[in-house]
Design a protein that fits this description.
There is one protein chain. The protein is α+β, with helices and mostly antiparallel strands. It has one domain: Gcn5-related N-acetyltransferase (GNAT) (Aminopeptidase), CATH 3.40.630. 35% of the residues lie in helices and 29% in strands. The protein has a 7-stranded mixed β-sheet. A hairpin with a 5-residue loop joins β2 and β3. The longest helix has 15 residues. Coenzyme A binds next to β4, α4 and α5.
Length: 162
């Protein structure tokens, strides 16, 4: 892995995160129109600022040597000390270099620090890299929620820490 810095995002990073994340999400062609519109909104400066305000240490970023945002994840503690992974995005040019894994490990450490015993998340069944990536990170496929959010099928994943 090249020299990549992983850290919690601050307010000053939000514009760069939005600029990085929006095109990455637009490439994910398997989302339907309504879902894509929602995804794009969630990566807008306005919504990312909201996330930052309400979600302590919840946005994690990967920075290149030149301090450009090349990866991000968003996670938060939901009820009962279970952490939800909302986003995980890595710049196409930097994939398969361990950055996704490093972001996840950082988020899992933070979730543990916040008292969580488990993390869970979803992925689109058409998202083939995630089928390989999640088990590598110790996640187990719980099953498929049919016709779930935005009437799309979703694979649900979990990793229990303790
Ligand atoms: C999924 C994604 C985050 C993976 O990030 P990444 O930085 O390429 O992953 P890493 O390099 O950390 O890979 C970790 C492990 O998963 C494996 N892996 C990752 N992508 C893979 C792929 N496309 N095919 C096979 N294995 C893959 C790696 O080989 C590695 O295995 P290892 O630990 O045995 O070496 C990245 O492909 C991505 O950003 N995709 C588009 C956005 C997306 O789909 N996000 C998830 C839904 S929000």
């Amino acid at each position: 892995m090249q020299k990549v810095k992983i850290r919690v995002a601050k307010k000053r990073d939000i514009r760069a995160i939005s600029k990085f994340g929006t095109p990455v999400v637009k490439e994910m062609k398997f989302y339907n129109r309504e879902h894509m519109a929602r995804n794009i909104y969630e990566l807008s400066i306005r919504d990312l600022n909201d996330t930052l305000r309400h979600n302590r240490n919840g946005i994690v970023i990967a920075l290149s040597d030149s301090n450009s945002v090349i990866g991000m994840c968003v996670h938060y503690v939901s009820h009962g000390h279970v952490d939800w992974l909302d986003w995980l995005l890595v710049d196409k040019r930097y994939r398969k270099m361990g950055i996704g894994k490093a972001l996840m490990e950082f988020a899992i450490k933070d979730a543990k620090k916040k008292g969580c015993h488990k993390m869970w998340c979803n992925s689109n069944p058409e998202n083939k890299p995630m089928l390989k990536f999640m088990p590598k990170l110790g996640f187990r496929k719980i099953g498929i929620a049919k016709r779930h959010a935005f009437k799309e099928d979703e694979i649900l994943w979990e990793r229990i820490f303790g």
